[in-house]
Predict the 3D structure of the following.
Amino acid sequence: MNAPLILASRSASRRAMLDAAGVAYEAIPADLDERAVEYSLAGAEPAEIAEALAVAKAAAVAAANPEALVLGSDSLVVAGGRRFDKPASRGEAAEHLRFFSGRVMELHAAAAILRGKGCEWSHAARARLHVRELSDRFIETYLDAEWPAVGQCVGVFRIEGPGVQLFEGIEGDTFTVLGMPLLPVLGALRELGVLPA
């Protein structure tokens, strides 16, 4: 391997994807004001915002680790013409779920690999998740089981857990839904010599 790989994330699902794929890395969460980056991109398309955040997270960690390849990733959710952030409270999580009910949720996941100040690669992917009609009883029961864990999830769900019950259909790959377009990431890591081709 030419340089160590650092994952600029504290996301358990992103770590689990890389672990399962057999990728060696070190995890160093990025210290980044994501809202400030988003504010600077007002009016941009969701995929552009997710990709810019992935680059910014990688850049924040790469600044202190200039010899390493740094993988940043981000995901965001759009539904009904609105963009959603992680819920700040259980009440807000319930509001988000009521809004998602019966709608199509678009999940944009992006990844970027930086070395020093140079972006070696970036990619954005989209999944469309068809949310079934959710009753208030279901939402409360669901949050009883899943809160506060889903407070760290932009769509208020973990697809690998009870969150799968929110949906009646999904268009897009599972890795994008989990928050990182893994197959393109693995391809980039092969191109960059981190993984054997």
User: Anything to note?
Assistant: The longest helix spans residues 46-62.
